[in-house]
Amino acid sequence: MLNRDIVDIFTGLGLAVLGLVIVLYASSHYHLGTLQRMGPGMVPMGIGAIIALLGAALAGGGMLRPRVALPSIEWRPLLAILGGILTFAVAVPRMGLAPAIAAMTLVTSLADRQLRLRTVGLLIVFLVLAAVVIFRLALGMNIPIVRWAF
User: Fold this and answer.
1) What is the domain count for the chain?
2) Which spans of this chain does the record mark as coiled coil (predicted)?
């Protein structure tokens, strides 16, 4: 076991356990129903079973593979993406959807070392327009596009 891919083994076992917990919880707390008349517990139980099977397959594959060297962690992309998520979560209630998307895109674009402002600007315009079309026009959600709560 020491000469095997430990990361995949432990990750797969963790996913398998998580999937089994979801299956047990869904089957004991929700009505499952039948395949013709599904109850509220059928989908969570099915998803939990899929997660458990994929986790078992990942762990099994890790047992068959020799050990793989762990790659080094690249901190810049990790921190930029986490910062972008945090920026979006803080900015949406205070500034609205469009400024929050712009701020998130600016922060997450720092993950790339070859930053091009024109590309980032075009991405911001596209993401804001797509969000307005999808959430406001197509789905009719009442999300403020621009709001200043300062």
Assistant:
1) 2
2) none
